[in-house]
Amino acid sequence: MSTERGAALRARAYEFLRRFVGLTGVERLLIAFAALVLSVAVGFLIVLVSGRIAECSTAAWTMPITGLGFCYDPFQVYFVLFNGALGNPFYLWEPALLNPEWLPVTIPLLGFMPGWSPLNNSFALTMSETTLLIFTGLSVAVAFRAGLFNIGTQGQLVVGGLLTALVVVAAAPVFPANRVGGLALIALGIVAGAVGGGVWGAIPGALKAYADANEVITTIMLNFIAANLAYVLVLEVFRAEGSSVVATERVPDYARIDPWFFPTTGDFAEAALLIGLVVVVGLYVLLEHTPFGYDLRVSGIQPLAAEYGGVNAKLTTVRAMTISGALGGIGGSMWVLMAEGRWLESVPDLGFDGIAVSILAGNNPLGVFPAAALFGVLKGGALQVGFQTDVPPELIGVLRGLIILFVAMPEFFRLIGRRLDVEDGPGGPGSDRDGPGESVDEATDAGSDADGSGSTDPTAGSEDPTGSGSEPTHGGESSA
Q1: Pair 280, 372: CB distance under 8 Å
Q2: I need a labelling partner for 370 at 20 to 30 A (CA). Which of 2, 138, 205, 453 fits?
Q3: pTM
Q4: C-alpha span between 355 and 51 (Å, rounded)
């Protein structure tokens, strides 16, 4: 009896997960919005309970009718969380919705005084986080599309950032100290970061392909190796003279990616965001419209079908992890050249956030930007909540985590449902794993070889459809 009940529960769970696979784009968007609303509601209750338990001299919010006082105002917390990330363009509990000083362009001659502008430090910090998360999110997405779990983007970012700082500082005397020399150093630094991250990503890729080592374990281990190795190298060899922290020399000012319109104190440069958007589009084209992208995706969907089609699965694994690591390394380059101006020991956990960004985006490069933007708003707004309210930072982290968890879980269920359909066989509603019209059946039937020419023998190993028992022939000739 218990066995039958367990089988029934398992069948219901499978059916529940498979329903997520067949969702349309509009349905996924509506579910994400509903998840966001639900996360806010749950967070609202958590803030209320925390505010009731905490001790304060004056209640920040009083519940209507009941008259109960709370130390934290949940309405204010969420308002500041999203409003603060944009630089407070809206007023809180004022008659006017918009900040009356809101004015993107000031015109003193007409009596318009300077007020709120989108080009502010708070919004710049939000966009800086968004830009960096684009690269780490893409890094994880490439590996996921190849059926690999790259948990080592953080280590690849650390290595890429360190190599960028060292190469730019070392090469600076060779180039002229002007804008042309700066552009050359920036390009050199980005290439160095890509190479460093790519090599660090290729290591677990090669171990996976040729030694069958689990990439989750190896990438996690390489995170610790990268962090400690970089720390020791900078501490003992490359530490800046007179520095009170473990950090390299600063890159020259003319070799930094500077903002065009935003303030320099916001650690954000529009050029870096444009580079990120170009990489998003380029990666989408690579994955969806090239033979290599087809091989990579088929390897992630069904390795046996890829092998049947002539794909070199081992080489594809190494290539996928190399590209994934290179994107993480470019994220480290942007952190050095745009935000910090040097490598220092307190590297932010952008690589780990990239995992959630990729899952939220459904491992689609085009979805990485909006997913990274949501993370950027949450991280930027959390700083403002800490400045403008008495809510402890730990509670702010809980609210951020709730939003991320609720919004990302539907996509996570969708990924699991895809995996179940692949394991149980094609033909179900979840066989379309990477886009319309590309199922496991089609991936198997396509028989594409590594160069995309589809040159496999369509008659090899097949039976005579006429039932005459004649032997299969090659080159399309019929048997005598």
Answers
A1: no
A2: 205
A3: 0.81
A4: 32
